[in-house]
Amino acid sequence: MGICAVVLVLLFGTSGSTVSHGDKIAQIDLEGVITSSSMESFFGAGEESMVTELAAELKRAREDDTVKAVVLRINSPGGEVTAADTIHHHVKKTAAVKPVVIYMDSMAASGGYYVACAGNEIIANRTTMTGSIGVIISTMSYHTLFTKLGLESVVFTSGKFKDTLSGSRAMRPEEKELIQGMVNQTYERFLEVVKEGRPKVPEEKLRSSLADGRIISGQDAKASGLIDATGYLEDAHQRARELAKSPGAEVIHLHKESGWLEALGLMQTARRADATPPRSIELRLDPAASPALQPGMIYLLPAFYAR
After folding, report:
1. Cα dihedral sign for 51, 28, 198, 78?
2. Contact of 120 with 98, CB cutoff 8 Å
3. I want to staple 226 with a disulfide (CB 3.0 to 4.6 A). Which of 24, 161, 221, 236 is the partner?
4. pLDDT in tens, 122-137
């Protein structure tokens, strides 16, 4: 196949869904750490972020009259607070128009569960890791090491809180109070989301046990009321058909369409196929090293990601 043919396939043969004229169930995937950061394109320039892409996919499903329901498959440990809240908003907006069934895959914890609460119903595998309802801010303190090495950090600020969370000195009590207040405020928002999405779960039960940051299985989530049922992805598809009253609806997958930049990027990659390879390639194989959490940023993530 020549280069021109490759470009034609890329530009006109990747519609993002199976060609069909009947009723459809649109499956959308939320995969990985939830972030608003842009991804790298073939040219090294910033592509649309996960938030932007998911919002666009949900909008397509919402406005397509042949799409009768949506299955949002979540496989995520959570991530940035604002990113999760924005995706939750778009899922909720879609659920107000047509049924949205959430399917939790291997993990839908913290921010992943935050997003899930916007759906009409939630299904998870019995072995799914979910829960982790809570908020975390992480930083590193190294001022005692500086003292041992005879080093001193000199910082000029415009106000006493400007270098809060700096590891070069011990935190003051008022700084701890400020940061804890931010965590508590975000936590209350998380509880609002859960209470709205799971109104049958008593608030006291949330505060005393379920929303203390613990991770639970899909089986325990069903028993506690955090989800509606356990099952598999095809069960979520079937439930979406039932809610849409469209038993013959075909499942399609929505994903970003390939555009001119992506196609040209592939062409550039093909042309460089015989180029001299780089002398070294760096691989990060430690799961704990990805994602690299930003100190001081508020996350909806299990604690083992905040290393």
Report:
1. negative
2. no
3. 221
4. 999 999 999 999 998 8
3-class SS string, 125-148? CCCCEEECCCCECCCCCCHHHHHH
Read off the amino acid at residue 47.
E
User: Average pLDDT over the chain, rounded to whole?
Assistant: 82
Q: Note if 162 is an active site residue.
A: yes
- Catalytic, 200? Answer no
Task: State the CB neighbour count (10 A cutoff) for residue 7.
Answer: 16
For residue 199, say if its preceding peptide bond is cis, omega within 30 degrees of 0: no
Q: How far apart are CA 110 and CA 130, in angstroms?
A: 7
In a domain, 263, yes or no: no
Domain coverage including residue 90: 22-253+294-305
The answer to whether position 195 is within a domain reads yes
* Tally of residues, the chain: 307
pTM tops 0.85: no
Catalytic residue among 162, 176, 205, 245: 162
**CB pairs under 8 A, 24+ apart, for 44-48?**
45/261, 48/256
- The span from the CA of 27 to the CA of 37, in Å, is 23
Query: Which of 17, 76, 110, 246 is an active site residue?
Result: 110
Quote the pLDDT of residue 301. Answer: 75
Residue 163 corresponds to which tokens in the numbers above?
């270098």
Question: Mapped to the 3 state alphabet, what secondary structure does 190-223 carry?
Answer: HHHHHHHHCCCCCHHHHHHHHCCCCEEEHHHHHH
Average pLDDT over residues 264-273: 44
Residue 101 lies in a domain: yes
The pair of structure tokens assigned to 284 is 């990060």
